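thread: overnight batch results

M.L. [08:02]
morning all. the overnight job finished for the chain we discussed friday. pasting input first so we're all looking at the same thing
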Amino acid sequence: MIMAGGTSVTKEPASHLFAARFNDAGFAVLAFDHRRFGQSGGAPRQIVRFDEQVADWHAAIECAAALPDVDQDRISIWGFSLAGGHVFRVAADHPRLACAIAQTPLVDGPAVAPHALRSMTPLAALRLFGRGVADALGSLAGRPPLLVPTAGARGTVASLTTPDAMDGDRALDPDHRHTDWEQTVAARIALQIGRYRPGRHASRIRCPLLVVVCDQDQSALPGPAVRAARNAPASEVVHLTGRHYAPFLESHEQAVAAEISFLEKHLVSC
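M.L. [08:03]
and the structure it wrote out:
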């Protein structure tokens, strides 16, 4: 199982709750940071480039396949939020994957962006996009990225201010153990995310795909993920009660049970 988190979430807070349970169930786990984040290389830091991150997934799959005792026909991938969207692209490009799990995935930027904008105050949205433009122009001149918080309360200048955006801390790092997790992102993401549509690749996915959605998700929204899943030839959808981070919080046991059952079905029996 190869795992990574969304936007600026590094591998430890992104994966440890699920990775431990997967490992207890008998599955080996390789978790990684996208380039420019966490312990991965790449400069400048805290910049999201979708194609780069997808390429990192390809590299992680190649790395896992080369490890001793790894069956190349039993490799699976898992991602949530933005990385859950990447799962659609990566699975479409790797027909030999045994299966894939996309948890609360961001699959359709144009569908999600208007909701995210409505969650911002007009002044905060104007300041975010102004900072995004300045960041993008500054990058052309070789200037350091202009950073904004990945999540913030309504009225603040942050990449995301939906009602459940601030659940991330208590969901992923409730004990504040991950002190090196930098929860910022280059502001240019505000200009990019509305054009990212990884769900369009669903029809090319040949491996079994599990899409886990939360019915009250206000960040990635469940509807676009369900619609994208319908286009994948071998997909299953699991609905959970709760908001974007519910699989790490009140719906954790249901999420774990569904995902382990899916893995046992497609990894153990293959």
